[in-house]
Design goal:
- This protein is α+β, with helices and mostly antiparallel strands and 477 residues long.
- It is built from 23 helices and 12 strands.
- Helix 15 crosses helix 20.
- The longest helix has 22 residues.
- The relative contact order is 0.06.
- The C terminus is likely disordered.
């Protein structure tokens, strides 16, 4: 697909004379590209046509066009229009207005959501932090970060406001042409991620753009263009100004979308990982090791397994992702609390609480995720205790399967568990008789390792005569 796409780019640029070769937009007619309505979400097409019928301009924009051109299946179909959010909302009864930072409209079709935004223009740095005009509402922080961006403009201004060149591609439903406003087609052909405008200014406006550059590079297999990459390490600290809730969502996109291993390596390379997982990064930098874990190998194995699951069409839970990213630090703290004299289980609970409390200052973790994380960690110390009825009880635990998968990651990254994962796999697949045999075998192995069990002395049962009062001795006279 990409080879034919490069010829499409050459054909498009040939439409212009050499003198005007860099003039935009490049307009690729329907006959010169492969994107058709068959490749689009039917619901997105409905939204486009209804907006057109109401007299508004409407385009598909960004990722869905980019992904199709490089032969990836688009996941989201975003629409942009010159209608205001209120006008869009009035057209669709199945819609709702969302957002303060960016006012958008979500048009819902069952489980599919088509996001509709209004053409925007970038606010000037010196523009008032607040305006009374609801159609032109903008605000910036003292660091130059955009807090609200609801200044509406035209399609040319909207293209300049977008983050990367390949996201400034527009599909016009009126004539089925593709409009390239910022050289996105050439950057796709060159397989590079290029930011629109001055990189330093754009990262200052929204530091999350640095994370997005990493995500696109990993997802698409592209290189980050030199000027786009240059300021990232220097400006990475700006992520400290991003709300933890927003960074939580970004982490899920970065590491839980099927390209986690590559993304993780790029985050470390560009110095961004430390602002997402500061304590884990500190441990990695210190080269801390323990006989049951190499943190780097463990995290990479967790990401490899997660990527594999997603490639197979399986789901992965956010709490599982965070559980293995924070586990090395939990072990480190657990070791500290044990050295202070705490028993193993209370030490684990203290360690988990401390690690989670410190993590939420960087990325928030909703309670519905932190509780399962604690349960997975706790089960790592309970899974070896599989004797008697314990194995049956553990298998019925709500987090057993997740804890079992977690154990396999530990083993695959070098943890010597005595084939504990193999035992639990056999137990899950076994018949009832085989299960009893497995438990007996595990019990025997435990006895062999620890030596023969010491028999408890039998408790002496009291007889009736023991309880009777002693008779008084009678003197024989």
């Amino acid at each position: 697909m990409l080879t034919s796409f490069k010829s499409l780019v050459r054909k498009a640029t040939d439409l212009f004379t050499p003198k005007n070769a860099q003039e935009y937009p490049l307009i690729i007619a329907r006959s010169d590209h492969t994107l058709s309505r068959k490749n689009l979400s039917p619901n997105a097409v409905k939204v486009l046509y209804r907006l057109n019928k109401a007299g508004f301009d409407a385009f598909l924009v960004g990722g869905c066009i980019r992904d199709h051109l490089i032969d990836l299946a688009p996941k989201d179909f975003d629409v942009v229009t010159n209608a205001t959010p209120e006008e869009v909302h009035a057209l669709f009864s199945n819609s709702r207005l969302i957002g303060r930072r960016f006012r958008l409209v979500h048009v819902t079709f069952g489980r599919e959501i088509i996001e509709v935004s209004t053409f925007r223009a970038t606010a000037n740095q010196d523009q008032s932090a607040n305006t009374n005009d609801k159609q032109n509402d903008s605000a910036r922080s003292a660091h130059g970060m955009i807090l609200r961006d609801n200044i509406f403009g035209d399609i040319e201004q909207d293209a300049e406001r977008r983050d990367f060149t390949f996201n400034a591609l527009y599909y016009d439903i009126s004539d089925f042409s593709i409009h390239d406003y910022c050289g996105g087609l050439e950057d796709i052909a060159a397989q590079q991620v290029r930011i629109i405008g001055d990189a330093r200014l754009r990262y200052q406006e929204d530091p999350v753009r640095m994370l997005r550059a990493i995500r696109f590079a990993a997802k698409l297999g592209f290189e980050i263009e030199a000027e786009t990459a240059a300021p990232i390490k220097e400006m990475a600290h700006l992520l400290d100004h991003i709300p933890p809730a927003r960074l939580f969502e970004e982490v899920l996109k970065l590491l839980g979308s099927g390209n986690g291993e590559t993304t993780y390596k790029l985050l470390r390379e560009y110095g961004l990982f430390r602002y997402l997982f500061p304590e884990t990064d500190e441990l990695l930098v210190s080269k801390w090791r323990r006989n049951d874990i190499d943190p780097e190998k463990f995290i990479l194995q967790g990401l490899i397994n997660t990527d594999k699951r997603i490639a197979e069409g399986k789901t992965t839970a956010p709490y599982f992702l965070y559980a293995f990213l924070l586990w090395p630090k939990v072990l480190f703290r657990h070791e500290e609390f044990m050295a202070q004299g705490l028993p193993a289980t209370p030490a684990l609970h203290q360690a988990a609480s401390l690690v989670l409390d410190n993590q939420v200052t960087a990325t928030s973790i909703p309670r519905r995720f932190s509780t399962p994380m604690r349960e997975i960690w706790d089960l790592q110390y309970r899974l070896p205790k599989r004797f008697g009825k314990r194995a049956y009880i553990l298998e019925q635990h709500a987090r057993f399967r997740a804890a079992f998968d977690f154990l396999l990651i530990r083993e695959e990254s070098g943890y010597e568990s005595g084939n504990l994962g193999e035992w639990w796999q056999a137990f899950q697949d076994a018949s009832e008789k085989q299960r009893r045999d497995l438990i007996t075998l595990a019990d025997t192995k435990k006895t062999d390792e620890k030596g023969p069990r010491k028999r408890r002395p039998k408790r002496r049962t009291k007889s009736k005569t023991d309880n009777a009062k002693p008779r008084k001795e009678i003197d024989n006279e």
